[in-house]
Design goal:
single chain, 194 residues, two-stranded antiparallel ribbon, 3% strand
Length: 194
């Protein structure tokens, strides 16, 4: 197939990562940058101190609990990244231990946290770094917007279904396989030239 011929052998594929994942029968990089499903060998979105700053900034904007923080980061990245609870909750504890946040009056079962004066001062000192980190999240959201490709995923799903159906019929033979491969190669080349 076209993508086997061109991927990982000296040049980048014309297909975005998500398309490759769907063409291979899976989902590629839903959370990117190591989100919910582990880092899978990719670099982390933030190191621990950077994540602390992002969480502190979000808590400064409004009191939040752990789940709110995970959702807020996911929204900032357009769904491309969501830190795991196993990273967020220890970070909340660390921010508490540092005196940067404090528990507010909890309504319900979730504990919400608000920034302290010490936390505000720390955030002010690191304002440039916070701006850069939020910019990184926004850039990830923009990249996600460019490669979200719902219409392409739909079309690839249709193609996969048609191929599975047609090639599983009893009248499929070597000639049909070659004709189908030629059509797919032709379409791939046209897409590459767009």
């Amino acid at each position: 197939m076209y993508f086997h011929k061109h991927c990982g052998r000296g040049r980048a594929s014309a297909f975005p990562a998500f398309a490759m994942g769907f063409a291979m029968g899976g989902r590629a990089g839903r959370h990117g940058w190591g989100g919910r499903h582990g880092d899978g060998g990719r670099r982390r979105m933030f190191d621990r101190s950077e994540l602390h700053l992002v969480l502190l900034k979000l808590i400064a904007d409004q009191p939040r609990h752990g789940y709110d923080l995970i959702r807020a980061i996911e929204e900032l990245t357009g769904g491309a990244y969501a830190p795991s609870p196993g990273v967020v909750y220890p970070s909340i504890t660390m921010l508490q231990d540092m005196g940067h946040i404090a528990e507010t009056d909890a309504s319900g079962t979730r504990r919400a946290f608000a920034i302290t004066d010490e936390g505000k001062a720390y955030l002010t000192e690191r304002e440039a770094e916070v701006t850069e980190l939020l910019g990184r999240l926004e850039a990830l959201a923009k990249e996600r917007g460019k490669t979200d490709g719902a219409p392409i995923r739909r079309a690839m799903g249709n193609l996969r279904t048609v191929l599975e159906h047609r090639l599983s019929r009893d009248d499929s033979d070597s000639e049909l396989m070659h004709q189908t491969a030629a059509l797919l190669d032709e379409v791939a080349q046209k897409i590459e030239r767009l």
